[in-house]
Amino acid sequence: MIPIPTCYSDFDPDFTFTSRNVEVKSERTAKQYLEFAIADFEQDETDKGRINSFSNAKRALHLQVETLASLFGFDAIKTKSGGYASFPKYIEFIAKCGIVTPRILTKLNRVRNAVEHAYYTPSKDETENFIDVVELFIAATDRSLYQFPIDIEFLPMTILGDGIPNISLISLEPYSGKLLLNANDAEDLQYKITLRPDQDEYFLWLKVLLSGTHLNDYKIRN
Question: The organism sits in which domain of life (predicted)?
């Protein structure tokens, strides 16, 4: 049986965690593309300027989303599906991870879908609105890059059921697609449980790791 967070109560409030800044595997960053978008918008009020601005904002968005998804294990799923994934699949994955709130994702998709046609020339308001939403998205998710949750460790907790191991450590290496749980059975024998992104339990424990690292609270009931 693979345990899930709601199998436990009374999580140790004095837990410790490790996080680190991770390097982006691309020549430029999402913030740099966003800066290009803002410069294009402010310096060129023609159709060409708006198209360039919107295109750079879109590059910023795609790079941020794909980087986050890769960090949290999406490449393992992508490889199984033949190596290609559409942008909505990336969005779906980071939403499942709990990296960003559904409200921000809904607003992002609404603005993006409104001007998605390849040959559409966005208006000034549409371009500015899209830049603002992308800027909001990057600000809301940058913490996962600069404070990537490596592990969280806590004392034994109350187990709500029989045959459920105690979990003392959750750990995740960036880009690995493997989340490890340090477990102890009823005889106190230690072993590791490996979870991958094709398992629902992966995302349940990842949310505990994220909320512990970024919010200083487990939020296991959410």
Answer: Bacteria
What pairs with residue 19 in β-bridges?
149
Strands 190-195 and 16-20 turn out to be unpaired
pTM metric for this prediction: 0.88
Domain residue spans in the chain? 5-20+147-215, 30-145
Q: How long, in residues, is the chain?
A: 222
What is the spatial distance between Cα 17 and Cα 217, in angstroms, rounded to a whole number? 11
Tokens of 153: 């460790």
How far is 75 from 175, CA to CA, in rounded Å?
8
